[in-house]
Design brief:
Length: 240
Protein backbone atom coordinates (compact mmCIF):
# COMPACT_ATOMS: atom_id res chain seq x y z
CA UNK A 1 0.00 0.00 0.00
CA UNK A 2 1.91 3.02 -1.28
CA UNK A 3 0.39 6.16 0.20
CA UNK A 4 1.13 8.54 -2.67
CA UNK A 5 -1.12 6.53 -4.99
CA UNK A 6 -4.11 7.65 -2.93
CA UNK A 7 -3.42 11.36 -3.25
CA UNK A 8 -5.62 11.50 -6.35
CA UNK A 9 -7.90 8.60 -5.45
CA UNK A 10 -9.00 8.81 -1.84
CA UNK A 11 -12.74 8.16 -2.19
CA UNK A 12 -15.17 5.70 -3.73
CA UNK A 13 -16.23 8.34 -6.24
CA UNK A 14 -12.64 8.78 -7.42
CA UNK A 15 -12.22 4.99 -7.63
CA UNK A 16 -15.33 4.67 -9.80
CA UNK A 17 -14.04 7.45 -12.05
CA UNK A 18 -10.69 5.67 -12.40
CA UNK A 19 -12.48 2.51 -13.50
CA UNK A 20 -14.74 4.33 -15.97
CA UNK A 21 -11.82 6.13 -17.60
CA UNK A 22 -10.22 2.79 -18.51
CA UNK A 23 -13.34 0.58 -18.74
CA UNK A 24 -11.54 -2.08 -16.72
CA UNK A 25 -10.13 -2.75 -13.28
CA UNK A 26 -6.96 -4.14 -14.83
CA UNK A 27 -5.48 -0.68 -15.35
CA UNK A 28 -2.42 0.20 -13.31
CA UNK A 29 -4.15 3.16 -11.68
CA UNK A 30 -7.03 1.02 -10.42
CA UNK A 31 -4.80 -1.80 -9.23
CA UNK A 32 -2.63 0.64 -7.31
CA UNK A 33 -5.49 1.56 -4.97
CA UNK A 34 -8.14 -1.16 -5.01
CA UNK A 35 -8.81 -4.81 -4.21
CA UNK A 36 -11.00 -7.00 -6.43
CA UNK A 37 -12.98 -9.55 -4.44
CA UNK A 38 -15.96 -11.86 -4.40
CA UNK A 39 -18.51 -11.19 -1.69
CA UNK A 40 -18.58 -14.68 -0.20
CA UNK A 41 -16.59 -17.89 -0.16
CA UNK A 42 -19.57 -19.56 -1.87
CA UNK A 43 -20.25 -16.83 -4.44
CA UNK A 44 -19.53 -17.56 -8.09
CA UNK A 45 -18.50 -13.98 -8.85
CA UNK A 46 -20.52 -14.31 -12.09
CA UNK A 47 -18.26 -17.15 -13.20
CA UNK A 48 -18.92 -20.73 -12.14
CA UNK A 49 -20.01 -22.14 -8.82
CA UNK A 50 -16.64 -23.82 -8.38
CA UNK A 51 -14.76 -20.53 -8.87
CA UNK A 52 -13.51 -20.04 -5.30
CA UNK A 53 -13.06 -23.71 -4.55
CA UNK A 54 -10.97 -24.25 -7.67
CA UNK A 55 -8.70 -21.24 -7.28
CA UNK A 56 -8.28 -21.72 -3.55
CA UNK A 57 -6.44 -24.92 -4.44
CA UNK A 58 -4.83 -24.07 -7.77
CA UNK A 59 -4.17 -20.37 -7.26
CA UNK A 60 -5.10 -17.55 -9.60
CA UNK A 61 -3.13 -14.52 -10.70
CA UNK A 62 -5.79 -12.87 -12.84
CA UNK A 63 -5.37 -13.11 -16.58
CA UNK A 64 -2.03 -14.87 -16.80
CA UNK A 65 0.62 -12.40 -17.84
CA UNK A 66 -1.54 -9.28 -18.03
CA UNK A 67 0.38 -7.74 -15.13
CA UNK A 68 3.71 -8.31 -16.84
CA UNK A 69 6.78 -8.87 -14.72
CA UNK A 70 5.50 -8.83 -11.14
CA UNK A 71 9.04 -8.49 -9.80
CA UNK A 72 8.66 -4.83 -10.73
CA UNK A 73 6.07 -4.51 -7.94
CA UNK A 74 8.69 -5.66 -5.44
CA UNK A 75 11.21 -3.21 -6.87
CA UNK A 76 8.71 -0.37 -6.74
CA UNK A 77 7.92 -1.02 -3.08
CA UNK A 78 11.63 -1.03 -2.24
CA UNK A 79 12.15 2.17 -4.21
CA UNK A 80 9.39 3.86 -2.22
CA UNK A 81 11.31 2.82 0.89
CA UNK A 82 14.39 4.61 -0.35
CA UNK A 83 16.33 1.72 -1.89
CA UNK A 84 17.49 3.06 -5.22
CA UNK A 85 18.47 0.98 -8.21
CA UNK A 86 21.79 -0.77 -8.03
CA UNK A 87 23.56 -3.99 -7.28
CA UNK A 88 22.53 -4.15 -3.61
CA UNK A 89 18.86 -3.75 -4.41
CA UNK A 90 19.00 -6.28 -7.25
CA UNK A 91 20.62 -8.80 -4.92
CA UNK A 92 17.97 -8.14 -2.28
CA UNK A 93 15.16 -8.62 -4.81
CA UNK A 94 16.72 -11.89 -5.96
CA UNK A 95 16.96 -13.04 -2.32
CA UNK A 96 13.29 -12.18 -1.72
CA UNK A 97 12.21 -14.15 -4.78
CA UNK A 98 14.15 -17.16 -3.53
CA UNK A 99 12.19 -17.07 -0.28
CA UNK A 100 8.97 -17.31 -2.27
CA UNK A 101 10.34 -20.24 -4.24
CA UNK A 102 11.51 -21.97 -1.06
CA UNK A 103 8.05 -21.89 0.48
CA UNK A 104 6.30 -23.18 -2.64
CA UNK A 105 4.52 -19.99 -3.69
CA UNK A 106 3.51 -19.44 -7.32
CA UNK A 107 6.38 -17.29 -8.60
CA UNK A 108 5.73 -17.90 -12.30
CA UNK A 109 4.94 -14.22 -12.95
CA UNK A 110 8.12 -12.97 -11.23
CA UNK A 111 11.16 -12.58 -13.46
CA UNK A 112 14.65 -13.25 -12.08
CA UNK A 113 17.09 -10.55 -11.05
CA UNK A 114 20.83 -10.18 -10.42
CA UNK A 115 21.59 -12.71 -13.14
CA UNK A 116 20.34 -15.61 -11.05
CA UNK A 117 18.81 -18.64 -12.68
CA UNK A 118 15.75 -19.89 -10.84
CA UNK A 119 14.34 -23.38 -11.16
CA UNK A 120 10.72 -22.81 -12.10
CA UNK A 121 9.16 -25.98 -10.81
CA UNK A 122 5.48 -26.42 -10.06
CA UNK A 123 4.55 -24.53 -6.88
CA UNK A 124 3.64 -26.74 -3.96
CA UNK A 125 1.46 -24.07 -2.28
CA UNK A 126 -0.16 -22.05 -5.08
CA UNK A 127 -3.60 -21.45 -3.59
CA UNK A 128 -4.15 -18.67 -1.04
CA UNK A 129 -7.22 -16.77 0.16
CA UNK A 130 -7.23 -13.29 1.68
CA UNK A 131 -10.42 -12.82 3.68
CA UNK A 132 -11.30 -9.17 4.35
CA UNK A 133 -13.87 -7.93 6.86
CA UNK A 134 -14.86 -4.24 6.77
CA UNK A 135 -17.03 -2.73 9.49
CA UNK A 136 -20.58 -1.74 8.53
CA UNK A 137 -19.92 1.81 9.67
CA UNK A 138 -17.49 2.46 6.79
CA UNK A 139 -18.01 -0.22 4.14
CA UNK A 140 -20.51 1.84 2.11
CA UNK A 141 -17.88 4.56 1.81
CA UNK A 142 -15.11 2.33 0.48
CA UNK A 143 -16.72 -0.54 -1.46
CA UNK A 144 -19.28 -1.15 -4.18
CA UNK A 145 -20.96 -4.20 -5.70
CA UNK A 146 -19.34 -5.06 -9.00
CA UNK A 147 -19.45 -7.18 -12.12
CA UNK A 148 -16.37 -8.75 -13.75
CA UNK A 149 -13.72 -6.17 -14.72
CA UNK A 150 -14.97 -3.84 -12.00
CA UNK A 151 -18.10 -2.39 -13.60
CA UNK A 152 -20.53 -1.24 -10.95
CA UNK A 153 -23.37 -3.72 -10.53
CA UNK A 154 -26.92 -2.45 -10.86
CA UNK A 155 -27.75 -0.78 -7.53
CA UNK A 156 -24.28 -1.84 -6.34
CA UNK A 157 -24.06 1.21 -4.05
CA UNK A 158 -24.56 1.34 -1.18
CA UNK A 159 -23.09 -2.12 -0.99
CA UNK A 160 -24.79 -3.01 2.31
CA UNK A 161 -28.23 -2.52 0.74
CA UNK A 162 -27.14 -4.41 -2.39
CA UNK A 163 -25.95 -7.37 -0.33
CA UNK A 164 -29.04 -7.32 1.90
CA UNK A 165 -31.24 -7.98 -1.12
CA UNK A 166 -29.36 -11.17 -2.01
CA UNK A 167 -30.02 -14.66 -0.78
CA UNK A 168 -27.62 -16.35 -1.10
CA UNK A 169 -24.88 -13.74 -1.38
CA UNK A 170 -23.63 -13.41 -4.94
CA UNK A 171 -21.39 -11.19 -7.02
CA UNK A 172 -18.13 -9.32 -6.72
CA UNK A 173 -16.98 -6.18 -4.92
CA UNK A 174 -14.30 -3.56 -5.38
CA UNK A 175 -12.68 -2.13 -2.26
CA UNK A 176 -10.64 1.04 -1.90
CA UNK A 177 -7.55 -0.20 -0.04
CA UNK A 178 -6.66 3.11 1.58
CA UNK A 179 -3.79 2.81 4.10
CA UNK A 180 -5.74 4.81 6.69
CA UNK A 181 -8.36 2.07 6.55
CA UNK A 182 -6.10 -0.98 6.42
CA UNK A 183 -3.08 -0.04 8.52
CA UNK A 184 -3.97 3.30 10.11
CA UNK A 185 -5.27 4.02 13.59
CA UNK A 186 -8.94 4.58 12.77
CA UNK A 187 -10.24 1.97 15.17
CA UNK A 188 -9.70 -1.49 13.67
CA UNK A 189 -12.10 -0.90 10.82
CA UNK A 190 -10.66 -3.68 8.68
CA UNK A 191 -9.57 -7.19 9.65
CA UNK A 192 -7.64 -9.34 7.20
CA UNK A 193 -7.05 -13.09 7.48
CA UNK A 194 -4.80 -15.07 5.10
CA UNK A 195 -5.39 -18.76 4.44
CA UNK A 196 -3.56 -21.35 2.37
CA UNK A 197 -5.22 -24.47 0.99
CA UNK A 198 -2.01 -26.49 1.11
CA UNK A 199 -1.41 -28.45 4.34
CA UNK A 200 2.32 -27.77 3.89
CA UNK A 201 1.77 -24.06 4.44
CA UNK A 202 -0.03 -23.17 7.66
CA UNK A 203 0.32 -20.48 10.32
CA UNK A 204 3.66 -21.81 11.52
CA UNK A 205 5.13 -21.85 8.02
CA UNK A 206 3.82 -18.35 7.33
CA UNK A 207 5.50 -17.03 10.49
CA UNK A 208 8.78 -18.61 9.38
CA UNK A 209 8.46 -17.06 5.92
CA UNK A 210 7.81 -13.63 7.43
CA UNK A 211 10.81 -14.05 9.73
CA UNK A 212 13.02 -14.81 6.73
CA UNK A 213 11.74 -11.72 4.93
CA UNK A 214 12.41 -9.61 8.00
CA UNK A 215 15.95 -10.95 8.23
CA UNK A 216 16.56 -9.94 4.62
CA UNK A 217 14.97 -6.50 4.85
CA UNK A 218 16.07 -5.30 8.29
CA UNK A 219 19.73 -4.58 7.44
CA UNK A 220 18.59 -2.15 4.74
CA UNK A 221 16.43 0.00 7.01
CA UNK A 222 18.26 0.22 10.31
CA UNK A 223 16.73 -0.09 13.75
CA UNK A 224 13.08 0.56 14.45
CA UNK A 225 12.46 4.24 15.11
CA UNK A 226 15.33 5.48 12.96
CA UNK A 227 14.76 7.96 10.17
CA UNK A 228 15.19 5.36 7.44
CA UNK A 229 12.71 2.96 9.03
CA UNK A 230 10.19 5.74 9.72
CA UNK A 231 10.44 7.12 6.20
CA UNK A 232 9.96 3.67 4.70
CA UNK A 233 6.93 3.01 6.89
CA UNK A 234 5.34 6.33 5.98
CA UNK A 235 5.86 5.70 2.26
CA UNK A 236 4.05 2.37 2.56
CA UNK A 237 1.10 3.92 4.34
CA UNK A 238 1.97 3.49 7.99
CA UNK A 239 1.60 6.49 10.23
CA UNK A 240 4.93 8.04 11.17
Amino acid sequence: IIRKHFEGCDSLVALAQERECNQTDHSEGFRNVAVSAVVSWFASGSYTRSFMMTHAVQGWSGSKGDMGDMTKLVERALRECGLLEGGDRDMLVADLLEVGEKWGLDMSQYQSRAGRTRQRGEPTCPGHILQIFVKNSVVDSVAYGAKPLGKRAQDGSPITAWLARQCPLEGQARLLAHPDLFIGSLGNLVHVFPYASCPLYGDAQRRLLLAELEDLLSPHFGDAGTGARAQSAASLGFES
